């Protein structure tokens, strides 16, 4: 009898615990977010399917170039479509060549989505940017839960399915990767500026993307992981170190620009 009572008590405890969990409201802010970990290695051998139905790995898509990596799901009724549209709108203001200097990879974390969903998303983008129709530098990927979870965990990107409203809770952000697949930084939301994207790609390019002025501009800004953007540390120097520090810094920048101009003029004369 005592054994039966123990079994009944254990069963009742399990039922009560399940009921408590079920009664707890879904907290999207606790379930979704980004635990930024710059320098983390993204597993480039992860295999997805692109919108043409081909099986590809991230390593094949990067092919030695930096990347803009976008976690989305293509059936998202909220911000995902706007996120991709905002990205491609800003890329037109970035002085780098898509395909030659970097690639764009959007992967779905919804394992129920198929290449048909990715093609539908490309079709929507093509209506606004016709050049994307046959672009080999823009990749829209779907795949199993194991693939998207593996990449998302490496990025520190957290998401969860909300069964009540039948949608995913997730953050809106884009990541930049180095050519070797290391996370460089995140740009959060839809409000980042063309200069943020330009600097993020310059940073991700490890000296291989952008000219001297881009590299110099990167010296004048530092990435702020809390805001997901770049802060001008010339202004910071004025606030913290005073005018002398800022003048010394500006003098260095001016001298560097002068040397670069002289070098170019010398090359033109030859």
From TrEMBL:
<keyword id="KW-0732">Signal</keyword>
<feature type="transmembrane region" description="Helical">
    <location>
        <begin position="233"/>
        <end position="258"/>
    </location>
</feature>
<protein>
    <submittedName>
        <fullName>SCO family protein</fullName>
    </submittedName>
</protein>
<keyword id="KW-1133">Transmembrane helix</keyword>
<keyword id="KW-0472">Membrane</keyword>
<feature type="signal peptide">
    <location>
        <begin position="1"/>
        <end position="22"/>
    </location>
</feature>
<comment type="similarity">
    <text>Belongs to the SCO1/2 family.</text>
</comment>
<keyword id="KW-0812">Transmembrane</keyword>
<dbReference type="InterPro" id="IPR003782">
    <property type="entry name" value="SCO1/SenC"/>
</dbReference>
<dbReference type="InterPro" id="IPR036249">
    <property type="entry name" value="Thioredoxin-like_sf"/>
</dbReference>
